[in-house]
Amino acid sequence: MLHQISWKILLLFLLATSSLYYLCILALYYRRDILGRSGPGRPFVSEAGQQYGRPDDFNDLHLIPGLLSQVHELVEEIRQLLQQASAGIPAKMELLGSLQSLLRNYPLIMGSSLRQEVGSHVAAELMRYCSISLSEEEQINLWKS
Fold it and tell me: What is the 3-state secondary structure (H, E, C) of 108-134?
């Protein structure tokens, strides 16, 4: 019986079975990545349970040159503005006006998918440095001229 099996048939059989084995292993370990971690429109939730935006929200960020460096500059300017404001007694409306004029200098961010995240960051920094809370509506109004 072993004389009827050639080396070619044996190698093809081993190749087919090992390919099937590794395909099953890949499917088991990477099924979330293959099927997508979340459906369309649903937020992406990390392993730790932290929720980010929809998976397609951030796909365009690498296409806009200079966007991430502008976000970094803006975050630093916001921090400096709020640190200076926290030295005195800051008025909420004056701070919002200053923040609006600062945000106007960054039209790339205004038109990107990072707009909501930057607004949330501004609200968190306002609470941290000045103990001023912002509502959702006020965060949206920051971007209006």
Answer: HHHCCCCHHHHHHHHHHHHHHHHCCCC
Identify whether residues 88 and 105 lie together within a single domain. Answer: yes
Q: Report the C-alpha gap between 49 and 103 in whole angstroms.
A: 31
- Whats the size of the chain, residue-wise? 145
| Dihedral sign computed on CA atoms, order 17, 19, 24, 29 | positive
On whether the CB atoms of residues 27 and 34 are closer than 8 A, the answer is yes
For residues 73 and 107, state if they share a domain.
Answer: yes
Enclosing domain of residue 86: 66-141
Residues of the chain under the 70 pLDDT cut: 1, 36-65, 145
The reply to whether 83 and 70 lie within a common domain is yes
What is the pLDDT, as a whole number, of residue 59?
54
What is the rounded CA–CA span in Å between residue 7 and residue 5? 7
Closest CA to 108 of 143, 141, 59: 143
